[in-house]
């Protein structure tokens, strides 16, 4: 639903969606009084695109107008400059598929949802912004499958709703989107275990910090060192062993676990290699959890027991009970 305007010169303007203008013409200025209004959205086609043969750079002197962005167009009106609005997209079962923020200036606004889903978690605690390899992990949540989705736009108490329908590219052979959906469900189920595993990694990090505090005190307190130095060395070595197993390149446990997100890129039933990668991720997660659990039950427990044999006075805190 669009319109074309020709200025009888050398330009042609194409408005690709005039639904907001038609609704304004129908409802009049009363529409402009609402704090937040969402408009009907056009059908969103998962169009496959590629470069025009022979033209790859602007230096080729090819005129090129601004193309319509790929994705679903979501238009809304704000009577005041709201600053930011939150968009939440859910499927027919009410399950959240995507959440993101968008600018909301006074007047008509439009955002593009590029069919991406919320990223699934990765194993490990390193912040992605500090990780030079983060570009390989960021925003991997898969692509939404064709269907109708509910769009909720909100800013505080102001809420507006609409829906968007995604359709596959009719020019391409039919894709097995049911298999894609099953792959996504499998990845989501596995990711819940990663979330729990990351909680254990946080505890392990705290334990490492407590061991470091203890190491500093050993240097200053000979009597304290006599009681806990052996257990401290053992627990420190055990932590280092776990960290080497987790972070070893190129086949460390964390890297193998995070390989599970590869199935989100599958365009149909999993290939033999994709299934193998998923099985390897499951085995790596089990191995990593076994390592940490065994450490807590053995080396860490012995270290705590050694500490409990002594009492300290003053303002120095060596360890806190979990």
Pick out its properties.
322 residues, alpha+beta, five-stranded mixed β-sheet, three-stranded antiparallel β-sheet, 6 helices, elongated, disordered C terminus
Characterise the protein shown here.
The chain has helices at 19-27, 177-220, 222-247, 253-258, 272-297, 299-307; strands at 3-6, 12-15, 36-38, 44-46, 72-78, 83-90, 96-104, 107-113, 147-155, 158-168. It has 322 residues and is of the alpha+beta class. It has a 5-stranded mixed sheet with strand order 4-10-9-6-7, with no helix packed on it. The model is unreliable at 317-322 (pLDDT under 50). A hairpin with a 2-residue loop joins β9 (147-155) and β10 (158-168).
Provide a brief overview of the structure:
This protein is of the alpha+beta class.
Tell me about the largest β-sheet: 5 strands, mixed
Mean pLDDT: 85
Spatial order of the strands forming the largest sheet = 4-10-9-6-7
Percent of residues in helical segments? 25-40%
Counted by DSSP, the helix tally is 6
Q: What is the H/E order?
A: EEHEEEEEEEEHHHHH
The total of beta strands comes to: 10
Give the SSE map:
Elements: E1 3-6, E2 12-15, H1 19-27, E3 36-38, E4 44-46, E5 72-78, E6 83-90, E7 96-104, E8 107-113, E9 147-155, E10 158-168, H2 177-220, H3 222-247, H4 253-258, H5 272-297, H6 299-307
Helix pairs in contact: 2-3, 2-5, 3-5, 3-6, 5-6
């Amino acid at each position: 639903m669009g319109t074309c305007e020709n200025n009888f010169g050398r330009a042609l303007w194409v408005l690709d969606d005039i639904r907001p203008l038609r609704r304004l013409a129908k409802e009049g200025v009363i529409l402009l009084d609402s704090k937040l209004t969402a408009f009907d959205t056009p059908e969103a086609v998962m169009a496959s695109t590629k470069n025009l043969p022979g033209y790859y750079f602007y230096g080729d002197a090819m005129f090129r107008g601004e193309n319509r962005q790929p994705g679903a167009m979501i238009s809304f009106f704000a009577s005041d400059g709201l600053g930011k609005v939150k968009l939440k997209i859910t499927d027919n079962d009410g399950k959240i598929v995507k959440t993101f923020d968008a600018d909301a200036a006074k007047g008509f606004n439009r955002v593009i949802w590029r069919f991406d889903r919320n990223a699934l978690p990765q194993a490990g605690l390193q912040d992605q912004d500090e990780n030079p390899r983060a570009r390989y992990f960021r925003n991997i949540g898969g692509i939404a499958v064709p269907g109708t989705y509910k769009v909720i736009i909100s800013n505080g108490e102001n809420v507006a709703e609409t829906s968007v329908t995604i359709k596959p590219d009719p020019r391409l052979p039919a894709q097995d989107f049911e298999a894609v959906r099953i792959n996504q469900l499998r990845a989501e189920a596995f990711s819940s275990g990663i979330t729990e595993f990351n909680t254990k990694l946080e505890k392990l990090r705290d334990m490492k910090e407590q061991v470091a505090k203890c190491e500093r005190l050993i240097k200053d307190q000979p009597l304290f060192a006599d009681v806990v130095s052996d257990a401290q060395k053992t627990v420190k070595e055990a932590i280092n062993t776990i960290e080497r197993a987790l972070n070893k390149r190129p086949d460390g446990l964390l890297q193998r676990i995070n390989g599970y997100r590869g199935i989100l890129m599958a365009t149909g039933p999993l290939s033999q290699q994709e299934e193998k990668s998923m099985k390897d991720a499951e085995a790596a997660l089990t191995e990593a959890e076994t390592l940490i659990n065994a450490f807590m039950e053995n080396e860490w427990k012995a270290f705590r027991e050694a500490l409990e044999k002594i009492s300290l006075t003053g303002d120095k805190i060596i360890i806190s009970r979990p």
